[in-house]
């Protein structure tokens, strides 16, 4: 009877050892997956930081271009006012020339 008990214990022990080994392998696999995920997370963090820098740069460029556009619109208004003034002066000069004839 004690031999059977011992055999039963040995059998249970071997079964538990196999289960422990299986769990250890699964744990190792999970650890590797976690390491890969952590590395990917680091890559994503770096990419995100680069994108934020690029966004800030583009916002600066946009601001600069908006200011330049406003300045050009102002110049355009000045030129158009000057053109209108010159056209009026030309019109008056033509009238004066016509009246002289």
Chart the SSEs and their pairings.
Blueprint: H1 2-100
Throw out a few tags for this protein:
101 residues, mainly alpha, 98% helix, rod-shaped
Produce a short descriptive summary.
The chain has 101 residues and is mainly α.
Question: If you average the pLDDT, what whole number results?
Answer: 93
**Strand elements, count:** 0
Strand content: under 5%
Helix content: over 70%
Taking the sheet with the most strands, its summary is: none
Provide the succession of SSEs.
Answer: H
Description of the molecule:
The chain has 101 residues and is mainly alpha-helical. The protein is 98% helix and 0% strand. It has one helix at residues 2-100. The model has no long low-confidence stretch (mean pLDDT 93).
